[in-house]
Amino acid sequence: MTGLQRDVLFWLFVGFFVVIGVVALLAITGVVKTEPRFRRWAVGSFVVAVTGVVIVWAKSQFPVDLFVTLMPPEGAELQTLAFERGLYEYDERTASGTPVTRSGHAELSLGVGGWQVKLPAEVMNKAVRLALKDKSGSWWETNPFYPNFTTQSLVPGRNREHVSVKPEAGENMVSTVFAAHGGTEDSTSFGAALLRVQTRRDVKFDNYAKRIGEQTGTPYYRWRVFVDEPKSVLDSIKEVQYLLHPTFPQPLRIRTNRGDRFALETSGWGEFTLHITVVYLDGTRAKTYYYLRLDKAWP
After folding, report:
1. Which of 26, 106, 245, 253 could bridge across to 32 with cysteines, CB 3.0–4.6 Å?
2. Is residue 230's pLDDT more than 50?
3. What is the pTM for the complete model shown?
């Protein structure tokens, strides 16, 4: 849910309870002539309305935070790592259709079960990536994950030396993800790497789809998404990361087969927008979006 949607919902709730409260207050004070039985009902309604407004206001001021428990890679002891900095990142689509990365400080704490990361409520419906720096200068990171998925694949860490905004405190929700293998510092800063990504032109994608039956009365499709570029572009790509709709099991799918154009083939019933990250052989990355269409005939 976006900030604008939260604000609209908040004022709808406030307006609902205010209307009830005003009507009840007019009945209680006798401005509106009613039967005694209705005035007794109005007293209770007024109390409920005031309570409702207070609760809605409190929820808007103290959003729910997400606590992520980090699990170590196989053979590693996460408790022995001394983390000194944590960041979260997620991508949003701008009005022009291009992705922009939002980031902020993630608060770290070491408990009985290992390291925990506290994230703000704003990331609850986002595909979040975590990056942690330990005192040796190594970076650890997770693949993108939605809050309703609890385990993630492991990926090498990248340098993320940039300033972010610290999240606010709130209530607790708990999830679990696997921490990634560590990566050492390199000579390329995060800002420079980002600039290199931005200078690359967008990679084009395409898809095919075919109906394969029905599930619960809904048409079901087999579909395939792939890089629609010449060999010169394909040869510069290391892998393509497809982030599907959060209703898919394991929404993050990584493809490394250059021979089939880094194609992702699976099935589903609806159209949606894929979040795609293209990882190049030189280590840079480019992010884009692709809208899956089920009316594109399979050749």
Report:
1. 26
2. yes
3. 0.63
